[in-house]
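User: Please predict structures.

Assistant: First:
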Amino acid sequence: MARDLTRPALAELTPYEPGKPVEEVQRELGLERVVKLASNEGQFGPFPAALEALGQGLPELNRYPDGGAWRLVQALAAKHDVEPTNVAVAAGADAIISYLALATLDPGDEVVFGWPSFASYPLATLKMAAVPVRVPLTDYAYDVERILAAITARTKIVFLCNPNNPTGTMIPRDEVDAYFERVPGHVLTVLDEAYFEYIDEPGYPDGVEEHAKLGRDVLVLRTFSKIYGLAGSRVGYGIGPKEVVDSIKKVRNAFDITQSAQDAAVASLGEEAELALRRAFNAEARAHLVELCAGLELDLAPRPVANFVYAEVGEDARPVFDALLREGVIVRPLAGFGASGAIRVTVGTKEENELFAQAFGRVQALA
C-alpha cells in the first residue's frame, strides 16, 4: 500500500472541485442551453487588439514563454507609474496569493481576513501550516475595526478584499485610510482589488495611487480575468514594495504565464474607452439583476459594486444550486467562501439575467 506523503497541514483540505463544462451539463441534463453565471467572468471577450496578439503568437507556441514577462512588467510599471521592481506578475491574482504565502508564512504565523470572503485566503494560509483568522463581516462588508482588533504579534498578513468576493460590498476610502493609520508596522496588508475596473463610486479608493505609491507596506492585487475578458489566459499582478515583489519572484514558477497570455495582456492595456463602455454596461446590467432579485424577494447583500450579487437562499444553498442547474442556469454555491446558505450570481446580459430570474422563480414555486 502506498504511503501517505501528504503534509499534516493539508489533512483537512479537499482538492478543488471544478464545475463541469457547459457542454457536459447540457449533455447530462438534456438541455438546449446553459447559462453560466458562476465564475464572475466578464460579459465580453478579449479586446480586438488582444485577439490579434493571440493570433500572431500561435506560430511560436513551440517556444517557452518569457520567464520574466519583461514586456508585461514594463507595460504595467508604465501604466501605474511605478518602477518595474514594484510589479509582481503571475498566472492570475490567485497565484500571487499562493506565492506570497509560500514566500512569507511560517507555521504558526497568523493571517487575518474578513469572512465570508475569498476562499484562497484561508487555503493559502493552511497550506503553509499558518493560522487563518476569520473576522466576521458587518452588514456583509469588511469591518476595519474588527480587522484591527484581530491583529496580534503573530499576524504577518492582513487581506482586505475590496470589493469583497462574494458579497460585492466595498470598504470606503475613509475606512481604508483609518486602517492604514493604525495597522502595526509588522503587518503586510494585501489590498485585493480584482474588480477594480468595474467600480465607479467616488468613495472607492485606488489602492495603488493612494497607498502603494505612498510607500506603505501594502501589496495591491489586480487581474486581467474580469473586465478585460482574459479569464481563460490567467494573468494577474500585484503592485507593492520591491522586497515583497522579490520574495514572490523567488518562488514563482519560471514559465508561470504563457506567452500568449502575456501578449494578450499587454495588448489590452490602454483601451480606456472600451473599459468605460464595459463598466457602464455592467452597472446597468447589475442594476437590472438587482431589480429582478428584488422581485423574487431574494435577500441580497446591499449596494453591490462589482459584477456579481450575493443572495441568501436558506440554510443550505446546494439544493437551490442543483435545482437551478437542472433549469440550465449555473450559479456559485458559497459554502467554500464561508456562506453555506448563499449563492453568488454573476451579472450577465439582460437576457441572461432574465433567464436566471425565470429559472429561480420556477425553483421557488416548487419549494
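Second:
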Amino acid sequence: MKTLLIALLSALLSTVAMAQQQGKYFFVKSGHIEYTLGGNTTGTKSVWFDNYGMLMYTLTESTTTVKILGMKSTTSTKELEIRKGNTIWKADLLQKTGTKMTIEAQTEVGEKLTKGKTDAQLHELERKTLTDMGAEIEGYETFLGKNCLKFKWGTTKFLQYKGIPLKSDVSTLGVSYTETATGFDTNISVPAAKFEIPANVKFEDMGEMMNMPTNETN
C-alpha cells in the first residue's frame, strides 16, 4: 500500500519535473530541505540539490505500518537516490543493493521546453503542465516564508515553491501519506561529496528509462 501511495505522489511530481528537466529542474540554484513523513509512513527525508536540481541527493528513512484484516505489518526502509544530470542511482542502504538508470530522452525534451525561458515563463509552464495533467490550481499559500503554488490532483494536495514540493498529502483507499518540509535553505554552497555514489552498494544497470510522451509548448 505504501508503494501505491508513493507511486501516485511520484507520478505527479516526476511528470512536472520532466517538463523542467534540463534548463532548470527547479527554479532555485541550490538548496537543502528537511521533511517529516506522516500518516501510515513515519520518518524523515533529507534533500540536497545544486545546479537547479540537476545534482540531487535524497535520503529517506521511514517505517510503514499497515493493517489488513486485523493483521498489522511494519516495514522499515533506508533509501538513497542520487541524480547527476541524466543518470539516477537508487540504493537500498539496508540491503546494500540498488539500480542505475539514465533518463537522457526526458532530459532532452526538458531542455527544449525550458531553454532560454525566464522564471516567469517557467512558472507558467509549471502551471500549464499541472492543469494539462488534470490537476486543479487553487491559488497560493505562504509556507516556511515562501509563496507556494497550491494545487490538488484528485484527493491529493500539494504546496510547491518554484518547482520544489514542500508539502504533500496523499490519501487513498483508507491509507494516508504526508511529506512536510520543516526546514528549507536556498542558494547555499552544497558539498560535492553529497553527490558521491556509495561504494558499498551493488548497483544493477537498468539502461535508459523509456521515453514518456510529453506535449511541447512553444
